[in-house]
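Appendix B. Extra example for self-study. Work through it before the problem class; the solution is given directly after the inputs so you can check yourself.
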Amino acid sequence: MTTIASPAPSVAHDTFPINGTDYIEFWVGNAKQSAMFYRAAFGFELLAYRGPETGVRDRASYLLQQDKIRFVLTSPVGPEGPIADHIRLHGDGVRDLAFWVDDARTAHKLAVERGARSVQEPTVTKDADGEVVIAAIATYGDTIHSIVERRNYHGRFLPGFVPKSSPFKTVPTGLKYVDHCVGNVELGKMNEWVEFYSRVLGFYNLLSFDDKDISTEYSSLMSKVMSNGNGRIKFPINEPAAGKKKSQIDEYLDFYRGPGVQHIAMATDDIVKTVRDMMNRGVEFLSVPHSYYEGAKARVGKIDESFSALEELGVLVDRDDEGYLLQIFSKPVQDRPTLFYEIIQRKGAKSFGKGNFRALFESIEREQGLRGNL
Ligand code: FE2
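Solution. Structure tokens for the complete assembly:
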């Protein structure tokens, strides 16, 4: 057994308390159209907007929400500046995994004292609904963590955003909250970033997987899951491991041109309903062979869902000491083989579907092979 699990230390171990994910911001080539994709296909609701019409000259941002999940999609309105540079290099991707905190100034100060690189000093913005304090620190690649304090704000999102609605009415797909966000980093860098989250933010190493856990005939990877004390922030960090062919992590790093967010896992209470709905709206998911389900019944035992429904959709299932989980992975949501999504339903299990790694990675490699990148 090569998986190592660690007991959760006390919340007091955190450098500063984090209430949860505040929002995830994507820098994309055409936020207006990306917003439509997440609204129509994923079931997010468009709530607010900030851009040239509201006095922000260089960019347009759309706030989307479904239950506790907030996405911000931002595009530049010209070729100059950091957003356009980011998109030229990385394509569409995640810029910011923002933390919701009670005291952004202290959080930023403590993080910097512990070695974080500051990207934004604490900055106060105000409107008629109150004030928000935002600071930011750098993490892997060009990704950042904004630190958002909103206890003195009563508006919908952030100062400057104005409510936006549309005759297009969103029907939610049942996505509820962000379960975890996974980063891909270069060979040999996983432990550096594990150490970063431990030293700077006080996170602990919840689980470790080595290349014996996560390998197929052709390629492998290593992964460590970092968590904050209350478990609301979970960041698995992957690095490629040597194999006969190119690892899926190498493919990501080649096409994203460096480290970045590989996938975001979002939780549902009814994965069969959510995934069927998303498929019918055009979201593409990875498929798994029939043989997977022959083995799964014996491996997992009795579950509430019908195996035939899971097989029809390609939903994977795994069990740990505390229960089981159901999960499925989308294909990349842009033409570069970079960011994708996981839909997960936890029924007691707190793990990450180790029993599915092999089937999952074989499925990813089939797609990788079709792209000519294996
Ligand atoms: Fe995941």
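Self-check: The CA atoms of residues 42 and 278 lie 6 Å apart. If your reasoning did not lead you there, revisit section 3.
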